Amino acid sequence: MAAPKRFPHRPLPTLALMAALLLLMAALANYLIHSGPETSSTASPGEAGTHPEPSKPSQPKPLAEFTGNESCAGCHSEQHLAWQDSQHAHAMAHATADSVLADFNGTHFDYAGIRSQFRQEGDKFLVTTDGPDGQLTEYEVLYTFGVDPLQQYLIDLGGGRLQVLSIAWDTRPVAAGGQRWFHIYPDDELTHTDPLHWTGPNQNWNFMCADCHVTDYRKGYDAQTQAFSAQWSELGVTCESCHGPGSRHLEWAEGQSWPDKGLTVLLDERRDMHWMHELERVTARRSKPLATDKEQQICAQCHSLRSVVTEGYHAGLPLLDFYRPELLVDPLYFADGQQREEVFISGNFAQSKMHQAGVTCSDCHEPHSQKLRAEGNALCSTCHSPVEFDRPEHHFHSASSDGAQCVSCHMPERTYMVIDPRRDHSITVPRPDLAQQLGTPDACTSCHTDREPEWAAQQIVDWFPQGR
């Protein structure tokens, strides 16, 4: 889930790009005309020339099709079961008594002078709120959107347009401040004329959200009618979102002799390798270098801030042929590379020493359940010696405190969508001295909010007089 912002629009360089493509096509045509198969000047009509016959191209393997997650469950039951409880599986669902987590029992929420009311009628979940014209109108909720720590709701405004309601349900426990309605733009007082209003273009599911909440999404946009006829194979982020269409793999499982097992992409970055611990090193290293970035590209299709260049991407295809990821620029990132706006992890991680060392997403995250492979400092200790790092002489905090957790100092949180804290994956060391110079956040004063960066910088000097 993402909360769109008001950023300056930076269009693709359309005219320059078209001119470059035309020049390239002209050069290619000229090359093909003048370098085609030559014939001998003395050859008779129908007689072969002096150049050999070109070899026949190999037959392309048939394209795979999407088959659905249930077709995977028979052979991959353990992975399928783990996935069923994941946020990926619940990224989007039909609005039913099982999927809707909010209280639609005659509740209401006030925002910008509008009282929105929520009720249930039989199997239908209904909301009365301000529509595109600013008038109170009752709408049916068709889909749920996300599950934790918040859930949003999708409404059909006609023309195939699904819009994301900006009033969301806080799914956290009551003790954590949850089980309530809230607005994801609490300070903006949005009205129906604002593009960020739930009926506006910046809250349009078809354009802004869909390809990361369903599998095999096709927009089906008609520019003349400005309508959508969207299609997808499944709701949610399913097996084939990450493994690609699976029909050829099913054929292989049923006896077809595909040499690649019929897989669209082989995710083998962690196969036949381990993280080696050596006596002279306090940090493990891969037993063999990371040879591809297939896994990170697949994760980055959604875990990056990017714009769509063209439709048709599926796992295994080159990411940059279909998407244009945003670079490390203001206002998306702070001057030191820390996340500022909602950039979805990939841009942070690409800066990290972990990335340089060959760490991949699945080294830390079990990809089917999405759970961490270990809890707390135990996860970091799989590579970083706990004797060296998980001790007060390194972190200078009580062992039972939050400050003793590796992530508190090296992956500080920043909260998005009001209640959704996300950790910075650039995985840096605290530098309050730089933060002081650059005016950026630092991990120390993010926790010690009553202190200044100067204090934090001096603490680091006192703790590490010889440097780190």
UniProtKB/TrEMBL annotation:
PANTHER family: C-TYPE POLYHEME CYTOCHROME OMCC (PTHR35038:SF8), DISSIMILATORY SULFITE REDUCTASE SIRA (PTHR35038). It comes from Halopseudomonas litoralis. Residues 360-386 form the Doubled CXXCH motif domain. CDD domains: Cytochrom_C3. Residues 72-97, 207-244 form the Cytochrome c-552/4 domain. It comes from the Bacteria. GO terms for molecular function: oxidoreductase activity. InterPro entries: Cyt_c-552/4, Multihaem_cyt_sf, Multiheme_Cytochr_ET, Paired_CXXCH_1. Keywords: Signal. This is Cytochrome c554 and c-prime. Residues 37-70 are annotated as: Disordered.
